[in-house]
């Protein structure tokens, strides 16, 4: 059973209220805050300690101490007094996390002592009776973080192994752990030999066939994007959740939402993350935020501790192992998720405050086949330089037109790396992310569709930092292109089965959106060179190889097709009324040169180092630096006032 979800809500017990009164007596909570906390616990249908932690900074340890004193149950430190491992079962660690308990000790008379923060949860006794028929249980109190720490420490080897190998062990053909299957190697060698033979026997005819195929491919790509843009621009597609649907949501009915924030060496942008989470229009006590940090990243771990943030922010330390990738870290952290839904945010993300509510409303209005909701992505530092402007043009068309078009046509949607919201149980069902795929988001979008699920696009935007540093942009883009290559190769291991599951339109869309773009980025430089040769030397230099109709189609692709790309990008930013970016759309061809540079780096890495994760450097923009400075200044002012 996955850890997602929480036990059924119970009103505050007499013990809870007694512990709360002790906090009032100690001056940690005012009488007014006491009444507000009780009212909020009923209104939100959450536990009293979760309300106190989220709203009044009462830590889990402080609550455990007061609950122990109020109930007369001993307080134990699981670090100083560890559990008896013989009482534990690896298969049950999800239950321990869901109900926040763990079998601690067995007394000489056979009584099993349970360490918990919820001694009145009837499910704990029921679970223990089922596992140990006839046993008697007693309780001791411990803090939430002690419980999470104990489960992680005890089951760390199993959790780490599952994060790396669960998908591969379940279905090796859906994992990018192996780049090329034996069958794909055979086909690749066969195609290569056949091409060499054809070039040797009939070079002119072979080149003609290649050029005609490439030209037709480009023309089909232009047409496909044009159709997606037109379909995705429809009003029915554009508006997913309206104000009345949001108003109908009651705080008490909202589910727990897990937020995974994988980070590596990003201590500086942590204040932005905490501020963004606090600004979400969602009951804080129903947020289950995991700061997913590498165990060896001491700087970020210490910075996270120093923030002194509410207990809803939990640090999950990912054990050091290979591959060291974002999807492996997310897989590990997912086992600690308690939410009905799970979303991925990057550290510098700034989602619109009502995004989670819109997602819940969209899930409520959709059938169970909608397993993921993708929010739109765009950039807050779009005016920094050439790269950030071009990035914004690209993303505006991608998320505002192309992805909604894919949804309307029921074509697999390659998810963005952030702001994708999942039904947690479906993530567990599918084996979550592929830790060996460096665009795990795109791959998961295809696997969702193959499994019969759909991905919807919600009318909410997450603003993030566009990469404006050239070498970092090349690294990031080469990882994306390499990941698309991996995804295409993985899902083409059984093309007939893929066709059967996706249908003809979905199968075509998969190639147009996943397979062909990396291919065109590799081919483009060759075509540009050929075009320059024909301009400098004259048409006669290539006319001997390519007849007029083929050259006309190639010229059409070059002129009309590229003009369409430029036009669609301009339309996308005009929709958001960012008119200052419109002239920059004319420079798109220069941007495509950088794509080709990244594509060749991606191809080289696919061959030599397929699972290497090119780290994107965040926090480089002046806007980000100003935000960090402002948050630090505000924090310092608040500390002085206290």
From TrEMBL:
GO terms for molecular function: glycosyltransferase activity. Keywords: Glycosyltransferase, Membrane, Transferase, Transmembrane, Transmembrane helix. The chain crosses the membrane at residues 208-228, 550-572, 578-600. SUPFAM superfamilies: EspE N-terminal domain-like, Nucleotide-diphospho-sugar transferases. It comes from the Bacteria. Pfam families: Glyco_tranf_2_3 (PF13641), MshEN (PF05157). Residues 72-160 form the Type II secretion system protein GspE N-terminal domain. InterPro entries: Nucleotide-diphossugar_trans, T2SS_E_N_sf, T2SS_GspE_N. Gene3D superfamilies: Spore Coat Polysaccharide Biosynthesis Protein SpsA, Chain A. CDD domains: CESA_like_2. Belongs to the glycosyltransferase 2 family. This is Glycosyl transferase, family 2. It comes from Acidiphilium cryptum (strain JF-5). The lineage of its organism: Bacteria, Pseudomonadati, Pseudomonadota, Alphaproteobacteria, Acetobacterales.
């Amino acid at each position: 059973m996955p850890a997602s979800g929480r036990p059924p809500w119970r009103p505050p017990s007499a013990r809870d209220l007694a512990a709360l009164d002790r906090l009032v007596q100690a001056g940690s909570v005012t009488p007014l805050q006491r009444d507000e906390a009780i009212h909020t616990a009923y209104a939100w249908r959450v536990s009293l300690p979760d309300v106190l932690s989220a709203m009044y900074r009462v830590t889990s340890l402080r609550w455990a101490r007061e609950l122990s004193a109020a109930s007369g149950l001993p307080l134990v430190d699981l670090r100083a007094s560890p559990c008896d491992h013989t009482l534990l079962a690896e298969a049950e660690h999800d239950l321990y996390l869901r109900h926040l308990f763990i079998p601690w000790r067995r007394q000489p008379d056979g009584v099993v002592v349970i360490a918990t923060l919820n001694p009145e949860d009837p499910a704990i006794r029921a679970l223990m009776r089922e596992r140990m028929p006839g046993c008697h249980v007693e309780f001791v109190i411990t803090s939430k973080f002690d419980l999470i720490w104990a489960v992680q420490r005890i089951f760390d080897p199993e959790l780490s192994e599952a994060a790396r190998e669960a998908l591969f062990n379940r279905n090796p053909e859906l994992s990018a752990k192996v780049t090329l299957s034996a069958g794909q190697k055979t086909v690749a060698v066969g195609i290569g030999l056949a091409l060499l033979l054809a070039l040797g026997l009939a070079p002119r005819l072979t080149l003609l066939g290649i050029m005609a195929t490439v030209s037709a491919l480009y023309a089909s790509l232009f047409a496909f994007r044009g159709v997606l843009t037109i379909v995705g621009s429809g009003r029915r597609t554009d508006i997913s959740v309206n104000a009345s649907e949001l108003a109908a949501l009651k705080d008490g009915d909202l589910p727990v939402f897990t937020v995974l924030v994988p980070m590596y060496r990003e201590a500086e942008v942590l204040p932005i993350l905490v501020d963004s989470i606090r600004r979400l229009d969602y009951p804080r006590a129903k947020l289950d935020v995991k700061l997913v940090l590498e165990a060896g990243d001491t700087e970020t771990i210490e910075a996270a501790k120093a923030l002194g943030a509410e207990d809803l922010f939990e640090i999950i330390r990912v054990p050091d192992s290979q591959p060291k990738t974002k999807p492996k870290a997310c897989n590990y952290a997912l086992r600690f998720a308690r939410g009905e839904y799970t979303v991925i945010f990057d550290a510098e993300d700034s989602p619109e405050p009502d995004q989670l509510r819109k997602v819940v409303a969209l899930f409520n209005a959709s059938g169970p086949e909608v397993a993921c909701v993708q929010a739109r992505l765009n950039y807050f530092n779009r005016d920094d330089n050439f790269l950030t402007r071009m990035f914004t043009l690209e993303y505006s068309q991608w998320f505002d037109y192309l992805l909604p078009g894919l949804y309307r046509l029921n074509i697999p949607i390659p998810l963005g790396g952030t702001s994708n919201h999942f039904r947690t149980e479906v993530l567990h069902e599918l084996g979550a992310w592929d830790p060996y795929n460096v665009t795990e988001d795109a791959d998961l979008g295809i696997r969702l569709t193959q499994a019969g699920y759909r991905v919807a696009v919600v009318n909410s935007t997450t603003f993030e930092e566009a990469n404006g540093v050239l070498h970092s942009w090349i690294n990031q883009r080469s990882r994306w292109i390499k990941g698309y290559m991996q995804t295409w190769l993985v899902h083409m291991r059984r093309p007939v089965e893929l066709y059967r599951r996706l249908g003809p339109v979905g199968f075509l869309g998969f190639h147009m959106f996943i397979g062909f773009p990396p291919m065109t980025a590799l081919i483009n430089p060759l075509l540009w060179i050929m075009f320059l040769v024909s301009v400098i030397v004259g048409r006669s230099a290539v006319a001997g190889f390519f007849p007029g109709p083929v050259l006309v189609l190639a010229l059409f692709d070059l002129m009309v097709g590229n003009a369409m790309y430029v036009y669609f990008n301009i339309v996308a930013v005009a929709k958001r009324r960012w008119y200052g970016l419109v002239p920059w759309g004319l420079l798109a061809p220069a941007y495509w040169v950088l794509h080709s540079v990244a594509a060749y780096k991606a191809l080289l890495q696919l061959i030599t180092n397929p699972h290497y994760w090119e780290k994107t450097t965040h926090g480089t923009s002046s806007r980000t630096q100003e935000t960090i400075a402002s948050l630090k200044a505000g924090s310092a002012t608040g500390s002085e006032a206290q």
